[in-house]
Amino acid sequence: MEYFVQQLVNGLTLGSIYGLIAIGYTMVYGIIGMINFAHGDIFMLGGFAALIVFLLLTSVFAGLPVVLLLLVMIAAAMLTASLWNWTIEKVAYRPLRGSFRLAPLITAIGMSIALSNFIQVTQGPRNKPIPPLVSSVYNVFGISISLKQLIIMVLTVILLTTFWYIVNKTSLGRAQRATEQDRKMAALLGIDVDRTISVTFIMGASLAAVAGTMYLMYYGVTVFTDGFIPGVKAFTAAVLGGIGSLPGAVLGGLLIGLIESLWSAYFTIDYKDVATFSILAIVLIFKPSGILGRPEVEKV
Amino acid sequence: MTNIANTSERAGGNLTAQALREGFYAGVISLGLFVLFVGLETTQNIRNELVINQRWGLLAIFVIVAAVGRFLSVAYLRPWAAARKASAAARPVDEEVSFFKRNFSKIAIVALLVYPPLMVMLFGVQGSLKWVDNFGIQILIYVMLAWGLNIVVGLAGLLDLGYVAFYAVGAYSYALLSQQFGFSFWVLLPLAGILAAFWGMILGFPVLRLKGDYLAIVTLAFGEIIRLVLINWTEVTKGTFGVSGIPKASVFGIWSFDVSAPNNFAKAFDLPMSSAYYKIFLFYLILALALLTAYVTIKLRRMPIGRAWEALREDEIACRSLGINTVTTKLTAFSIGAMFGGFAGSFFAVRQGFVSPESFVFLESAIILAIVVLGGMGSLVGIAIAAAVMVGGTELLREMTFLKAVFGPDFTPELYRMLIFGIAMVVVMVWKPRGFVGSREPTAFLKERKAVSGSFTKEGHG
User: Fold this and answer.
1) Fewest Cβ atoms closer than 10 Å to its Cβ: which of A40, B23, B148, B217?
2) Residue to test with chain B: of A57, A106, A260, most B Cβ within 10 A
3) Cβ–Cβ gap B415/A103 under 8 Å
4) How many Cβ pairs closer than 8 A exist between chain A and B?
């Protein structure tokens, strides 16, 4: 039982990270109907920005408090990743908005290849390990919860609350929801559609950057190929929860994290990615609208 | 008149100011983009700790290039492009197509047939190896794969991101069956195709209901599952170590390319021993396979099944209401496309003599799909050109040793291969979303054949 709860905790931690990435996929898909294939690489880019800022800070000011260090890392990662995603949207996706459906997907795949190889070229192909930032572990009823896991879960909850507030209560969020429902009508009613889409990309990227920083802190290592597998898993999470639905993305992320850690704990660790991919295929085949998504009605 | 001169002058002044402003913004943005990744580098020191390396000079180059590039593009390139477009629109379209253009495919096939002897003549038997193998065979494999995928994506409009799985099935079928049972290449080539087609069917069945992006993601998942199984099923596939020592192909069993064999090709013709003959043989083999793919594609397009594929691509609902069985149509597209992937896979195994899961990553699927899309989806010539440009271009990068003189001796152009490939994918897509050959000849027509611009046809709705 304790073993099971322990795996639950691990799964929820991993799931929080997937959930944060999945929100970026689900929002972009909701608003312009494209799979932003490069989103996983934005997550990786955020992790690298955090890594570089960490090294910079520790080499310049030794003995900085960890809280401050983490906050600066997260802020730098969010800024950099947002700027990248904003630029990419403007340069690569916007000119293709009226084009046929495959075009943005192909561009996004090209962008994903370009981003990961850009990091490989500028930062080198090797694994980048960092010393552990926080190492305390608490023991609650025989289950060990590390401070890292607590930070990840608490931060996820804070971000999701803020995010939920922005989307549901502010005029910006209203503009986003309106653009999602009908882009042309929203434009006619005076909503700056281009700006709204840009903001969506920025929001997605900042959440992915936080996830990237958490991932770096949790595993203590990052590498330029780190965007692909977490990216596909987060996309699976978005689909599982129902693409276009924000609570769905988080729910999907948590489920994928749980499935992954329980699978590794009770079956073989070798096939854990096969399990995730099979879930993706099964969900898409039998319930393409996901758990919380609305079924798509086909108009002729 | 003076009025017009005035406005254009004012526009010119505005343009420079605007270009300066945009150039400045571009500089600031690129500073933000690159400051962490280019300005600073993380490297391991002797004690294996990560340390920061500063590269502010390189960062300055990046920022200046971005700012100046943006300035030039706004101030000069854009007005020039607009003027050119206007003059091109005013000029009547010349009807006469040149002899070269009309007979392009025939000329290309003849050129490919004489390519290996020409290379042998130019660079000698040993020197031709690089040109025949790295350029000829490498490009032709991608041409064949792209033509195979074209049946699924270009003709039937089903977006497949896991095509490399069938390539893997073909390669592993040849590698394992030839080692276990000692079958020859000529027996296993059709068998590999059939096995791959069978897998295409298995994959096709569950995804029949899916469309567009979702179909793409599920096929991606299938491709990854096959690769992960190849990695983890170590008893059969030897995992990441791969299968090595795969037997060579022979010329229909008449001549062999094994050095010790009595019927060795070089011995039979009293030629000096060289691996170049085998490569030249492989070149003709893959050329024949690729041309077979093209021939079958062209023939199928004229048959009811090909018409059904194209109808399916244009509009699935209309297709179904006209009584076309979409299930069999989709399944045949998947399995025939997969079959050619299987052929290419067994050829790949024979050429490398070694297969490992490393060769069948998602990136390969992305490259093949990129070639199909950049080639203009459905156009065989366009796809061949795209393959030559994208694969040949990245291969050419390996040859550019003169770049070392410019960027210093540490400069390795191969490192930039995939970076440039990715950027090229984005640039070509933004610049020409319809691919290099953006128009399509209809196969069914009333009285007169009219070329339709690519923008009037739909894809990817599968």
Assistant:
1) B23
2) A106
3) no
4) 176
d(CA B68, CA B80): 17
- Chain A residue with CA closest to B435: the answer is A103
Domain boundaries, position B17: 2-85
Q: For B98, what's the count of Cα atoms within 13 Å in the CB-facing half-sphere?
A: 4
Cα B336-B337-B340 angle, rounded to 5 deg: 90
Q: How far apart are CA B349 and CA A25, in angstroms?
A: 37
Tokens representing residue A95 in the block: 């000119």
**Cα B243 off chain centre by:** 25
pLDDT above 90: residue A77: yes
Cβ–Cβ contact A295 with B under 8 A: no
Rg (CA), chain B: 26
| Average pLDDT for A250-258 | 90
Beta bridge partners of A74: none
Length of chain A: 300
B338 and B275 in a common domain: yes
Decide: B67 and B23 in contact? Cβ < 8 Å.
Answer: yes
**Tally of domains within chain B:** 2
Q: What is the pLDDT of residue B52?
A: 78
Q: B412 in a domain, yes or no?
A: no
Res B462: pLDDT? 34
- Burial letters B397-428, b for 16+ CB under 10 A, else e: beeeeeeeeeeeeeeebeebbbbbbbbbbbbb
Element (H, E) at A146: strand A143-146
Low-confidence ranges of chain B (pLDDT < 70): 1-13, 89-102, 124-127, 212, 253-275, 400-414, 435-462
> Nearest-CA neighbor of A157 among A7, A19, A252, A260?
A19
Least CB–CB distance from A114: residue in B217, B419, B460: B419
**CB-closest option in B29, B232, B458 to A270:** B232
How many Cβ atoms sit within 10 Å of the Cβ of residue A175? 20
Same-domain pairing of B146 and B63: no
CB-based contact (8 Å) between B43 and chain A? yes
**CATH number, span A2-286:** 1.10.3470
Q: Are A252 and A19 in contact (CB under 8 A)?
A: yes
Better-scored residue on pLDDT, A79 or B373: A79
Judged by a CB distance cut-off of 8 A, whether residue B52 touches chain A is yes
Co-location of B38 and B160 in the same domain? no
Please report the ipTM that was assigned to this predicted complex. Answer: 0.85
